[in-house]
Amino acid sequence: MLYGTVLSMDVVRYEAIKAKMLPDDFTFLMNDQDNILCTAVKKYHGIVLDYTNGSMLAIWVNSFPDTTFNQLACLAALDIVSVLKINQGVGDTEISVRIGICLSHIVQARLTSGDSLNDADMGHIVKVASKIKEINKYMNTSILVSEEVLEHTRDFLTRNIGEFCSVSQSRSFMVHELMRQDIGGHDPLKKRLTLFSKAIYFYKIRQWSQAIAVFSRILNEDEKDGPTLFYIHLCKHFMENPPPEGWCGTVRF
After folding, report:
1. What is the DSSP letter of 163?
2. Neighbours of 7 (CB within 10 A)
3. CB of 81 within 8 A of CB of 101?
4. Three-state DSSP state, 41
5. What CATH number was assigned to the domain covering residues 2-146?
6. Which range among 61-65, 87-91, 103-107, 142-146 shows the weakest confidence by mean pLDDT?
7. CA end-to-end span of the chain
8. Which residues contact 101 (CB under 8 A, 6 or more apart)?
9. Of 97, 74, 80, nearest to 155 (Cα)?
10. DSSP 3-state assignment of 93?
11. Predicted TM-score (pTM) of this structure
């Protein structure tokens, strides 16, 4: 058995970008972005298993649990997002990504000289990693990680955005947004993170109006904050359609 920290990534609106560009321009743009993305992973000692049509799968793997890989995967994700903001594409085409990072046990996995896994192992990894990545769509975020990934990491600003459960599974998992490295000292973002935690507390105990009031204070400073907008909408929904007895805040998607 191998133990892996897995990074799954998609280029946002890949097909739409492809459709509006000339073939040669699109190829040039994607080649440039491919180099940026793969370089970021390899810089932090990761292995790119697959990169096709704007989707990348990378892994940090060992024969025993190695928590340093969690730190490296998070640094690679932040590097990808940072470099893409600096390097705009051809014709001012902006490239953004959605990233999900999780831990995975890979049974009978075999890394070949070409840094690849067999199809069965690939399918298992994609299933685990893509669920967290997809939550970015609802939250309008860039990097989400499972709670286990944050164990033994350091110097990151993160926020717990809740417990999630897909409609196809009964097991829920806690998800955090990886925002940036912690620069220390006074940081206005830390105040917003404290407010967000307070609002989530009210949300979990079904105090919808109080939750909305605190969430709205966040919007006063960042009117486009995705998780805040998501939970305000959800609180308003629950005001009209209360969740069932026994509900403890889990979001189904």
Report:
1. E
2. 31
3. no
4. helix
5. 3.30.70.1230
6. 87-91
7. 31
8. 5, 6, 7, 8, 70, 73, 74, 77, 129, 132, 143, 144, 145, 146, 149, 178
9. 74
10. coil
11. 0.88
